[in-house]
Amino acid sequence: MTDQPVDESLYRPCVGVVLANRNGEVFVGQRIESDQPAWQMPQGGIDDGETALQAGLRELWEETGVTADLVRIEAETEGWLIYDFPDDIAKTRWKGRFKGQRQKWLLARFTGEDDAVNISTAHPEFSEWKWVTPLQALEAIVPFKRDVYERMLREFDGRI
């Protein structure tokens, strides 16, 4: 993470969703392709012509089965939060085109019941999921994303 100007073309535009329940807990999912602990919140690329909101709602549905009618968007990060991939990931993902990701984050209040969450989607990304406190989420996130999560959670502080 840097406060210096960056070449945005080196960073994949992405959106993340903090899905928060009525108890102030947040959704985290264990990445399906990882045999190590690799928890994260729903996130994914912003397609051409999509807004961060549109992409966030699409990614939320694709990864959790939660539909737009079961959430209330309460906030969006002011700017882009940027992180670099570890070298092994940067070389292999997206054919090495990106150095990392730049993310907008949405705070989405889940208004449904837990049985509306379904990670067995058409293209599953998570092997399991759970509700955790924001601090527990921060501690569970893979280290190279931790700074972005910390900045995002600080920006949403008091609203989750």
Explain this structure to me?
The chain is of the alpha+beta class and 160 residues long. The protein is globular and about 40 Å long. 22% of the residues lie in helices and 31% in strands. It is built from 4 helices and 8 strands; from the N terminus they run ββββαββαββαα. The mean pLDDT is 92. The longest helix has 13 residues, at 52-64. The strands form 2 sheets. Strands 1, 4, 5, 6 and 7 form a 5-stranded mixed β-sheet that branches. Strands 3-2-8 form a 3-stranded antiparallel β-sheet. It has one domain: Alpha-Beta Complex (Nucleoside Triphosphate Pyrophosphohydrolase).
CATH-defined topology: Nucleoside Triphosphate Pyrophosphohydrolase
Helix share, percent: 10-25%
CATH architecture: Alpha-Beta Complex
> Going by CATH, what is the homologous superfamily?
Nucleoside Triphosphate Pyrophosphohydrolase
CATH class term: Alpha Beta
Q: How much strand content do the residues show? A: 25-35%
Using the CA coordinates, give the radius of gyration: 15 Å
N- and C-termini, Cα separation: 24 Å
